[in-house]
Inverse folding.
């Protein structure tokens, strides 16, 4: 999710069959949105839910944050915002790119920080002073493949379920758009067929179709793709139609999955209005980037924010629990201060991962994967 694109002049349409120009300026506002979505998810994991974080705090976050916990509970919708951004960025980065290059770009972007995060969390959780249980060595090794979820293996990183959704999206997009060659017509057809097929899968209640087509997440990925088409030509009626339909279906799934009736036993109550509002704001924020309304947000620090987002997202949950336990229960630091210091600590760790892992390994892995396979020597007649 690192490639970006210059905004076309108002009212212009680029030739869809042509590749995008090199040296395009960064959409730095999109980097800022990515970090904001990651911080939303962190707020949810630290103060917006129960579960294992209760062990870290020593009591429910509901008691630690009597008022804010209800707002933090909406932070899980940062995932849906991530998926909209991902649809935008993957369509952008795959346009005009051969399949080998697309695969190399995605693999080199995801894997180095992921591998190190899996090993780091496994090692930390194995320490005797850490109260959280580590997965078995065998399960930790399977986690390095990113296929632990379909294989039914315990997850090292709680957030990796979203990466499994991303990987399936990449595969669909690569097979249907990148491999035959991206064009406006092909992308529109892909979006329309995916939304229709996902609706059919939902109605059929067939697990295999659900696994491949992801009905509950497809609208967000497709919505981001539609917004990229808007970015290319803001007058594209089909693109706006894709965005509108995706928003309508996406808010439905978000409410269906995240709303529940008010209950004194529940951690918190997310209202339908609040869920729809956040989904709408997520679409609107990416639309503002697509339309160039945030072009003035061109500060260099946003690029740094974008670079920190992925490693922060990987490590913040489980290692954040360890930091919360050390600060709040070990040193007696207050809840608000612990919350803020944990965010800062995870951002600093993310900076280290970005500087010493991603900056070092990503270019090397990309170059290796982009290299054509050597032809085998021909046999003598």
């Amino acid at each position: 999710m690192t490639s970006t694109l210059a905004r076309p002049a108002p009212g212009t349409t680029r030739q869809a069959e042509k590749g995008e120009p090199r040296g395009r300026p960064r959409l730095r506002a999109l980097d800022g949105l990515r970090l904001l979505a990651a911080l939303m998810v962190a707020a949810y994991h630290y103060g917006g839910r129960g579960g294992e974080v209760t062990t870290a705090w020593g009591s429910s976050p509901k008691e630690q944050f009597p008022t804010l916990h209800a707002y933090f509970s909406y932070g899980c919708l940062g995932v849906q915002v991530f998926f909209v951004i991902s649809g935008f960025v993957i369509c952008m980065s795959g346009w005009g790119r051969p399949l080998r290059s697309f695969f190399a770009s995605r693999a080199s972007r995801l894997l180095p920080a992921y591998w190190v995060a899996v090993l780091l969390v496994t090692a930390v959780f194995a320490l005797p002073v850490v109260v959280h249980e580590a997965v078995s060595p065998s399960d930790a090794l399977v986690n390095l493949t990113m296929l632990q979820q379909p294989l039914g293996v315990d997850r090292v990183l709680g957030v990796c379920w979203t990466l499994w959704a991303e990987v399936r999206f990449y595969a669909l997009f690569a097979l249907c758009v990148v491999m035959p060659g991206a064009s406006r017509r092909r992308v529109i057809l892909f979006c329309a067929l995916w939304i229709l097929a996902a609706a059919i899968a939902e109605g059929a209640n067939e697990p295999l179709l659900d696994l491949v087509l992801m009905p509950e997440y497809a609208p967000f990925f497709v919505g981001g793709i539609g917004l990229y088409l808007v970015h290319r030509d803001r007058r594209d009626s089909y693109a706006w139609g894709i965005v509108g339909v995706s928003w309508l279906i996406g808010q439905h799934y978000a409410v269906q999955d995240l709303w529940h009736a008010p209950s004194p036993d529940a951690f918190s109550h997310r209202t339908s209005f609040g869920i729809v509002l956040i989904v709408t704001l997520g679409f609107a924020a990416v639309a503002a980037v697509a339309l160039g309304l945030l072009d003035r947000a061109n500060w260099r620090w946003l690029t740094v924010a974008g670079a920190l987002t992925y490693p922060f997202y990987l490590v913040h949950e489980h290692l954040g629990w360890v930091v919360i336990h050390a600060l709040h229960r070990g040193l007696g630091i207050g809840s608000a201060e612990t919350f803020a210091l944990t965010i800062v600590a995870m951002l600093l760790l993310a900076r280290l991962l970005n500087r010493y892992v991603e900056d070092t390994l990503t270019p090397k892995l990309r170059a290796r994967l982009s290299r054509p396979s050597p032809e085998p020597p021909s046999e003598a007649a």
In short: The radius of gyration is 21 Å.
